[in-house]
Design brief:
It is globular, with a radius of gyration of 16 Å. About 75% of the residues lie in helices and about 0% in strands. The protein contains six helices and no strands. It is mainly alpha-helical. It starts with a helix and ends with a helix.
Length: about 100
């Protein structure tokens, strides 16, 4: 596989990940953070960093719109549910564990 083919395969995987997130809006960001230690917002930041590495400009709101498929405020109003006490407890436990290993 040459570099162009590798880049195209990586781009296809990225598009599929974004599509998968779009098709599974019921999966909350806190669930993603608790299970995989990243969420849609993390992916937005990575996307924005990739754009900037190419010498292009993109702000965080534009990056989140690219990942969420709509302005974040719209997505949040339509799909984000309040975190449960259990979700928050697990998130805080994982964050504390990360800090203790650094």
């Amino acid at each position: 596989m040459n570099q162009q083919q590798k880049t195209e395969a990586e781009a296809a995987a990225f598009r599929q990940l974004v599509k998968h997130f779009d098709e599974n809006k019921d999966v909350q960001n806190i669930d993603l953070m608790n299970l995989a230690d990243f969420c849609r917002n993390c992916l937005s930041k990575w996307y924005m960093a990739g754009v900037k590495e190419q010498g292009l400009e993109m702000d965080y709101d534009q990056a989140r719109e690219a990942i969420y498929g709509m302005p974040f405020s719209d997505w949040k109003a339509k799909y984000q549910q309040p975190a449960t006490e259990a979700q928050l407890a697990l998130f805080n436990q994982r964050e504390a564990a990360k800090k203790s290993t650094c």
